[in-house]
Amino acid sequence: MPANKISTIASLKNKKALKIVVLTGAGISAESGIKTFRDNNGLWENHSVEEVATPEGFAANPGLVYRFYNERRQQLLSPSIKPNEAHNALAKLEQGLGNNVVVVTQNVDNLHERAGNKNVIHMHGELLSVKCPQSNKSIYTESNTDATMLCECCKTPNSLRPDIVWFGEVPYHMDRIEQHLYQADIFVSIGTSGNVYPAAGFVSFANSCGAHTVELNLEPSETESQFEEKIHGPASVIVPQFVE
Ligand code: BJW
């Protein structure tokens, strides 16, 4: 393996069929002003995970869960929240390599799309979307939501829920993600703690499929030892260095 890891991707980029799968987590959006999950003693804005990010929590106190997501949706829409240099670098990478770059994000924000990435898979859902539990359709919204909202798609008085994959639920697009990982030449994981499955298992799958695996994170993650290369530092610095 070359000593200068940063030049590795640059040289591989010249290969015609290079396929790069990028997994992102909360760390890539931290410098845009969106808090990560586990930097706060397991509390999200003073709410426990069980209260706000499980189907049981939603059933027990839907009002709290709607409020929690309404606040986060409004935060995402505020003018101060913008893509940072790490998002921009990934957008540039896709501009250069087209569909050979896919971003699989655990994040529910839209900062990859706002930076310019088109090939983005949201495996944990999206803040700017609600879901009809009956038809499973996702509906874009920038508005606050609550239990009185009627479902437009199936025209029944069915309360729409946040379009978020909570603990105990199956993440979205797993078949597509597995296909991409199977074909990957390089798997890059950015800004994720490696605490939450199935995403935490992607490095092991990518390794077994023969991909070159790289971790870019502020600090060593839980799965750090499984990566062939690791570069630690703030995403806004190390991601542009790595991909450009
Ligand atoms: C920086 C930085 C900077 C900071 N620059 N870096 C026991 C064993 C194994 C699994 C399980 C188990 N018990 C239960 C499970 C399953 C469970 C799970 O994994 N639990 C663990 C806690 C153990 N998983 C599930 O339930 C999932 N579903 C599932 O497994 O279904 C079964 C199935 C799967 C596949 C096929 C068929 C069936 C669903 C998981 C849903 C996760 N949802 C959440 C909540 C979304 C709600 C919301 O946003 O409101 O998604 S949890 C939360 O964690 C969120 C995130 O996407 C996810 C990952 O967090 P992430 O992104 O890694 O953030 P952090 O905060 O943890 O880390 C940030 C990192 O950035 C840190 O390392 C920092 O150092 C770094 N950083 N600043 C670079 N500037």
UniProtKB/TrEMBL annotation:
Broad class of enzyme this protein falls into: transferase
InterPro entries, A to Z: DHS-like_NAD/FAD-binding_dom, NAD-dep_sirtuin_deacylases, Sirtuin, Sirtuin_cat_small_dom_sf, Sirtuin_class_III, Ssirtuin_cat_dom
Residues engaged in binding Zn(2+): C132, C151
Main localization category: cytoplasm
GO molecular function: acyltransferase activity
SUPFAM superfamilies, per the entry: DHS-like NAD/FAD-binding domain
Binding residues for substrate: Y69, R72
Keywords associated with the record: Acyltransferase, Cytoplasm, Metal-binding, NAD, Transferase, Zinc
Residues annotated as catalytic: H124
Binding positions (NAD(+)): 25-44, 106-109, 191-193, 217-219, 235
Cofactor: Zn(2+)
Cofactor binding annotation: Binds 1 zinc ion per subunit.
EC number: 2.3.1.286
Compartment(s) of residence: Cytoplasm
Positions of transmembrane segments: none
Pfam family name, one: SIR2
Domain notes: 2 residues (Tyr-69 and Arg-72) present in a large hydrophobic pocket are probably involved in substrate specificity. They are important for desuccinylation activity, but dispensable for deacetylation activity.
Function (record text): NAD-dependent lysine deacetylase and desuccinylase that specifically removes acetyl and succinyl groups on target proteins. Modulates the activities of several proteins which are inactive in their acylated form.
Protein name, UniProt field: NAD-dependent protein deacylase
Organism this protein belongs to: Glaciecola petra
